[in-house]
Amino acid sequence: MTKHLIFLLFPFILGAQVAEFEVYFPFDDDRLGQSEKEKLDREIFSIPKSKIDSIHIFGHCDSLGTDEYNLELSSRRVIAVKRYLISRGFELNQLVSNYYGRFEPKYFDNEKFDLNRRCEIIVYHQPNIPFYSTLRVTDLKLKEGESYVMPNLHFVGNQIVPMWYAFDVLSDMVTTFYKYPSLKADIHGHVCCVNDKPLSDERAQFVYEFLIQHGIHKNRLNYKGYGNLRPLIRETTAEEELQNRRVELKIIEIDDAPDNLPPDFSPPSEVTMPLRGIDFISNKAGLYPSGRFMLKLLAESISDSRGIHHNIQVNTNGIPEKLADSRMSEISRQMKSFGCREHQFSVSPVQPRQMGRVKQPDLFVKISRL
């Protein structure tokens, strides 16, 4: 059974996160060195043990020796890792493993050849998402005149970009409007802390435009931001601030009985939006410090993401090709430095249509379901 099939058999947990790293072995050896034990401790125990669902271990060798011998050696390397993790308190049923001998090399350069003597470690663990709810929009019993907080519709700090796990919430909102053709609603945006009314307006408008882009007629919708003037609770902790950063749906009109979805209906698979306040220094590839901080907030969501791809789009209108390439390379470098893995994001150029004299953002992001 390949590791890909193992992934398919492992139950997908909504919102689960993944941590990946490798430990290495000496030539023709299955002994786990002290430095590699320390790496296992450092990487795995940075996650609360109670949140770890399973640890996947995949053993490999270099290309020296026979196929049969290398398969046996990679098996012993897996066993060495499993024994160490069991000694550190993990149960055998939490450890999933396979071994490949020399059949799946990763490193081909001469200077990295030794790194093929490795075990890949993939840790599946529950997300650290405060107030993450198992309730879905499609579960809500909508009533005329009532307001509902959209569960898990959280945003990246200072952005209109939804957190990676919030894409399903937006998709569920589209589904709900299709199920209830008579549904009319107001979308209310709220923020915490500082009274940033423009941001609350933009988040409400983002949801409004997302619904319209996916077939909901604008006559069924209105939107408005309220800044921080209507908090749900008094804010004394970061968790309470998160509860006040929300989008609500106020039901203006609805029939009781839902309709069947149209036969050609398909849930949304992508959305593109500008990145707020992330600007390049004029004629340079680097970002202003405030922009780098905001990019880091986005990267924190991306580095935790699963089943979602983020394409960071660099506005190349009116700049030389060399500068455009440098800016794209710099964004890619920054994202990797913030812990994002290559399969989670990409960087590409974009030339948005100019709208009068309004300055276009330097960066956009396109979120797609994998």
Short descriptors:
four-stranded mixed beta sheet, alpha/beta, disordered N terminus, 370 residues
What would your notes on this structure say?
- This protein is an alpha/beta fold and 370 residues long.
- It folds into three domains: 3-125, 60s Ribosomal Protein L30, Chain: A (2-Layer Sandwich); 137-253, 2-Layer Sandwich (60s Ribosomal Protein L30, Chain: A), CATH 3.30.1330; 271-369, 60s Ribosomal Protein L30, Chain: A.
- Helix content is 29%, strand content 21%.
- It has a four-stranded mixed sheet with strand order 1-4-2-3. Strands 5-8-6-7 form a four-stranded mixed sheet.
- α8 links the parallel β10 (308-315) and β11.
| Name of the CATH first level of the largest domain | Alpha Beta
Q: Helices and strands, in N-to-C order?
A: HEHEHEEEHEHEHEEHEHEE
| CA distance, first residue to last residue | 23 Å
Major sheet: arrangement of strands:
1-4-2-3
What's the total helix number? Answer: 8
CATH superfamily of the largest domain: OmpA-like domain
Strand content: 15-25%
* Count of separate structural domains: 3
* Helix content range: 25-40%
Main sheet overview: 4 strands, mixed
Q: Which fold name fills CATH's third level, the topology of the largest domain?
A: 60s Ribosomal Protein L30, Chain: A
Mean pLDDT: 88
Principal-axes geometry comes out as globular
**What Rg do the Cα atoms give?**
24 Å
Which architecture name of the largest domain does CATH use? 2-Layer Sandwich
